[in-house]
Design goal:
mainly beta
Length: 142
């Protein structure tokens, strides 16, 4: 029976970038378990699983519009050093939690540090990247 919306699927995957760099894999642990059609996975990943049968394997490349979207320049932020908590020791690559004026929290990565400010990138780390996945549908729970 092919996988369809509403099915709980168990999928092993390995995700790589265009240059071959692996960014994630389930191969060292349990397969990913998700219910199809609940928008819990990136759209292109879920679409690739639909129609697969238990034991099927597939290699797909998902474009940014079906993954984490394009990079958005407006999500590059500057935080003046005087707004950095005194206990914080910022480092390039560090993830920080921020909040909007209405209290909605989000993460950003420190990309640059000067004496005057921190530069933060609130884009998803994989935004703008085509993602290639090797998929194996391990099981379907009805």
């Amino acid at each position: 029976m092919p996988a369809k919306n509403g099915d709980t699927v168990l999928v092993h995957y390995t995700g790589t970038l265009d240059d071959g760099t692996m960014f994630d894999s389930s191969r060292e642990g349990d397969p990913l378990e998700s219910v199809l059609g609940q928008n819990m996975l990136i759209p292109g990943f879920e679409d690739a699983i639909l129609g697969m049968e238990e034991g099927d394997t597939k290699k797909v490349t998902i474009q940014p519009d079906q993954a984490y979207g394009d990079r958005v320049d407006e999500l590059i932020l500057t935080l003046p050093r005087d707004e950095v908590p005194p206990h914080m020791k910022p480092e390039v690559g560090m993830l920080v939690q921020l909040a909007t004026d209405d209290g909605e929290e989000f993460e950003a990565t420190i990309t640059a540090i000067t004496d005057e400010a921190l530069t933060l990138d609130a884009n998803h780390p994989l935004a703008g990247e085509p993602l290639t996945f090797e998929l194996e549908l391990v099981g379907i729970k009805k």
